[in-house]
Amino acid sequence: MENLQSVEQFEQLKSEGQTIFMFSANWCGDCRFIDPVMPAIEEKYSDFNFIKVDRDEFIDLCIQLDVFGIPSFIAYKNGEEVGRFVSKDRKTQAEVEAFIDGLK
Fold this sequence. Notes:
The chain has a 5-stranded mixed sheet, covered by helices on one side. It contains 5 helices and 5 strands. The longest helix has 9 residues, at about 95-100. By secondary structure, the protein is an alpha/beta fold. Strand 4 and strand 5 (about 80-85) form a beta hairpin. The protein has helices spanning about 5-15, 30-35, 40-45, 60-65, 95-100; strands at about 1-5, 20-25, 50-55, 70-75, 80-85.
């Protein structure tokens, strides 16, 4: 999964096609829990572009988007937010896939 490099890149990626941003942090145990299954999720949902956002590096963006719990996911399609799976709870592969299935 590609890492977000800048807020400008965020704005560009959210406006092009279908993008799911995963908000995470290196110190987050629940984020580390979901990391091993993310490649399988990315492969299954290859029509989406997946981008990892480091919460600590982009804290202002997280505040702007009301992302206060991680791991969290926000999906955009052509610039419009089409779904969010935002909470402080640990997420399973099945829960993340159910979220993505609900976007279609």
